[in-house]
Amino acid sequence: MSLPKAELHLHIEGTLEPELAFELAARNGVTLPYADTDELREAYRFEDLQSFLNLYYELMAVLRTERDFEDLANAYLARAAAQGVRHAEIFFDPQAHTSRGLELGTVVEGLWRALGDSASRHGVSTRLIMCFLRDESAESALATLDAAKPYLDRITGVGLDSAEVGHPPAKFREVYEAAAALGLRRVAHAGEEGPPEYITEALDVLGVERVDHGLRCVEDPALVERLVRERVPLTLCPLSNVRLRTVDTLADHPLPAMLDAGLICTVNSDDPAYFGGYAGDNFDAVRGTLGLSEERLRELARNSFLASFLEDDEELRAR
Ligand code: ES4
Ligand code: ZN
């Protein structure tokens, strides 16, 4: 559906559709351990976050050149535009590429080729958010921030993603302090698979302005109260939660109760190529299965612009 909306939780590497994966594999002489797109799709049955991440990192082997990152981002922006996305704040995982021998510049320049033309070509304004892999060391995150210094005019903020449990936000205190000193905005995944305490830590230790997922706040009423009081937006990803078994079924998703509690929720796609849908598909799913009213859907769309890093005048133009 095409309600104008902003997408605030989207991993660009998670938009790699099987067809493009095979096209890039052929172009780059990379052999994938799957016979064809059907066999690859068969692997999209995940037990949890880690089983998904294993495939997500494996498929990145096909991304090698600036043009690959440009093609990936253009394909996403075209699909997003078709589903009513007017603004996209896009995560990327530098360490997943530099660890394979790519230069950070290849990734940023490639993505920027698509993002730079996105407003005129797709009608989608964009921001880039550089994520640190929390299952890598704090030193590696600091080195990544340092390597990003030549590109800071194109990077709006920093985020924290990958395997959550056992990697609490406080591990990255120093790098978030350094990012803040550089004028970067701060977000972090917290409370996806990890406990509610990680959400509190992301706020208190990392100084995040938005919490990615934040789903498990519902286990702690005092935390819910705080998030409501402090107007901290949550970037929820309903289809992701179902595919990664964070909720049993979409019908069990706490989104309606979270909205009723006064939380500033947004609905996003996370890794749409893997989880069965883009932003509009997530809106359709929560409307259909959770029976959200039109008013609630408009609230979700409005929240997405309010919680974005757009300036006020840009925000008004986008929605
Ligand atoms: C991710 Cl769903 C999710 N959670 C944490 N890290 C990620 N990276 C890409 N998708
Ligand atoms: Zn995510």
Automatic annotation (TrEMBL):
Q: What is catalysed by this protein? A: adenine + H2O + H(+) = hypoxanthine + NH4(+)
Site (Important for catalytic activity) location in chain: H213
The EC class name is hydrolase
* The entry's keywords: Hydrolase, Metal-binding, Nucleotide metabolism, Zinc
EC id: 3.5.4.2
UniProt-annotated binding residues for Zn(2+): H9, H11, H189, D270
Q: Catalytic site residues?
A: E192 (proton donor)
All residue ranges annotated as the Adenosine deaminase domain in the record: 4-316
Keyword Nucleus in the entry? The reply is no
Q: How is the cofactor bound?
A: Binds 1 zinc ion per subunit.
- Cofactors: Zn(2+)
Q: Could you give a GO molecular-function term held by this entry?
A: hydrolase activity
Q: Would the keyword Electron transport turn up in this protein's UniProt record?
A: no
What residues bind substrate, as annotated?
D271
Similarity field: Belongs to the metallo-dependent hydrolases superfamily. Adenosine and AMP deaminases family. Adenine deaminase type 2 subfamily.
Question: What is the documented function of this protein?
Answer: Catalyzes the hydrolytic deamination of adenine to hypoxanthine. Plays an important role in the purine salvage pathway and in nitrogen catabolism.
HAMAP family, per the entry: Adenine_deaminase
Q: What is this protein called?
A: Adenine deaminase
Source organism: Streptomyces africanus
